Structure formats: structure tokens, C-alpha cells
Write a sequence for this structure.
């Protein structure tokens, strides 16, 4: 007769035989990813819904393997750079990076601003490549490997715009806990978002008008693949004040041009 552990009783889920520690360890890694300065053991146990003794044992194993290290704050832990190395190896296996990188570097040099390249992972934007600005001092908070919501980013709205018609309604219903007012410009009303997405499909570009962070604007364009699906998105982020100087039209054309070049390289043919 088998018996569930206390952690299993709380989660209500059985794990595959022999993989309990693996799943729990990965869960701790995912949680620690949200705490770059470290997370106290007690809080980590609470978030993971595990006993503190279980969490401590798993952390010791992750520490011995080089994935976790004690943080400066006593009793706290954080991830190590070993995960960055693994992530970079995974990213380099994506041929799209090798195809897109030269074009993104051109855009970076032409605009002098932050250039982002992303794909979609489930209901989030996954940033897979980023180039820092060559002029100016502004650095965005985005980083390679970051997951971002669809509704409040220019690249996210690109992915939403080219989804099936019923997707946005479903997204709005199932992500109410995530859709929040981040700035006075954040779109949180479904009707306004529908209007925005129609505009994106018409002009093949999306904008983040300080919807995620005040003072920062972003322009994105879709990258189409062989099957005319939007699998990737290119964007440029810059201070709103500078965007007003440069002009939205000029920057949009530069982003769209690079997006089209990448699209052609991965097999997209403009429909006749």
C-alpha cells in the first residue's frame, strides 16, 4: 500500500516514480528565477508548498551541483550563472538566432537603440536575443530568457494580433489575474485591445506606448515563416522623448524592413 508525502497531499498530484526530487528541484529553480537577490528559505518553502526540511535538502543538492548558492542575506539562496551558460547553449541551437542576428545588428547600428527579438512560449513572450543601445545611456530591464505578458508589450501584441480570432477573448478570460494596470497607458479593456489588434494587422506593426514602463516606448513588427505564421517578432525600445525626436514613421519603417528581411530568409513569400 503506497502512501503520499505531505507535499503530495497538498499539491494533489502524483509525480512519475523516481522523479520526485527532480521535479521539486526544478520547481525551486523556477521560483528562485524571480528572486535575483535571493529568497529566504522559509518563503521559498511557502511558495513551493513544501516542508522547509524538504526545501533545505533539495537546496543542498542544487548547491553541490553548482546551480544554487547562498545569497548575501542570511538564510537566503539565489541561482548561479551556471544556468546562464546552459541557457545560452540552448539558444545557440536555435538556427533562427544565426539567421536573425546579422539583421538585428544592422537595426541596432542604424537606430542606435535597444533591439529585441522574441518568440512566443504558451501565453507569454520569450525574449531570445537582445542588443543594447549603441548611443544613449538608457538600458531596458528586459533580458534574454525573460518571459513577458502578451497584453502590455509591443511584441506580445504582435503575437496576439496574428492568432486565431477567438484567442484574445479566451486570453482575457483566463488571465484576469495577470492583466493589471502597470501605467496610466496600459490597455486592460478587451474592447480597446481588439481595436488595437485590428490596427496592428492593418499596418503590420505594434506599439507599446509606455504601457509597461513610463518613459519607455517600443515599436515591433511581425516575422512570418514559410507557412505565413508569425513565429517571431522584432522590436526597438527607446525613451519616449527620443521617439518623438526621431519620429514614429521612420523607426517603424526600419523595424519592418528588418522583420521582412528575416521573414524572407526563413522562407516567407509575400502572397500574390
Amino acid at each position: 500500500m503506497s502512501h503520499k508525502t505531505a507535499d503530495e497531499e497538498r499539491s494533489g498530484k502524483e509525480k512519475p516514480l523516481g522523479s520526485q526530487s527532480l521535479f521539486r528541484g526544478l520547481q525551486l529553480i523556477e521560483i528562485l528565477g524571480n528572486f535575483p537577490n535571493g529568497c529566504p528559505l522559509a518563503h521559498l518553502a511557502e511558495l513551493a508548498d513544501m516542508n522547509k526540511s524538504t526545501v533545505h535538502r533539495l537546496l543542498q543538492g542544487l548547491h553541490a551541483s553548482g546551480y544554487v548558492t547562498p545569497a548575501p542575506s542570511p538564510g537566503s539562496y539565489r541561482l548561479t550563472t551556471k544556468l546562464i551558460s546552459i541557457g545560452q547553449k540552448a539558444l545557440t541551437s536555435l538556427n533562427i538566432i544565426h539567421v536573425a542576428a546579422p539583421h538585428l545588428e544592422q537595426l541596432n547600428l542604424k537606430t542606435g537603440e535597444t533591439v529585441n527579438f522574441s518568440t512566443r512560449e504558451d501565453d507569454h513572450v520569450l525574449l531570445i536575443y537582445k542588443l543594447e543601445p549603441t548611443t544613449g545611456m538608457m538600458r531596458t530591464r528586459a533580458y534574454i530568457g525573460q518571459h513577458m505578458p502578451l497584453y502590455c508589450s509591443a511584441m506580445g501584441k504582435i503575437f496576439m494580433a496574428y492568432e486565431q480570432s477567438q484567442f484574445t477573448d479566451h486570453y482575457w478570460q483566463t488571465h484576469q489575474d495577470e492583466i493589471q494596470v502597470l501605467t496610466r497607458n496600459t490597455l486592460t479593456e478587451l474592447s480597446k485591445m481588439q481595436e488595437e489588434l485590428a490596427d496592428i494587422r492593418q499596418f503590420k506593426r505594434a506599439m507599446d506606448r509606455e504601457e509597461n514602463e513610463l518613459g519607455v516606448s517600443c515599436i515591433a513588427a511581425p516575422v512570418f515563416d514559410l507557412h505565413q505564421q508569425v513565429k517571431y517578432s522584432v522590436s526597438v525600445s527607446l525613451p519616449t522623448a527620443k521617439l518623438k525626436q526621431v519620429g514614429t514613421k521612420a523607426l517603424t519603417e526600419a523595424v519592418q524592413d528588418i522583420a521582412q528581411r528575416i521573414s524572407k530568409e526563413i522562407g516567407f513569400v509575400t502572397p500574390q
Summary: Confidence is low (pLDDT under 50) at residues 1-14. The chain has two domains: 6-80, 86-265. The radius of gyration is 21 Å.
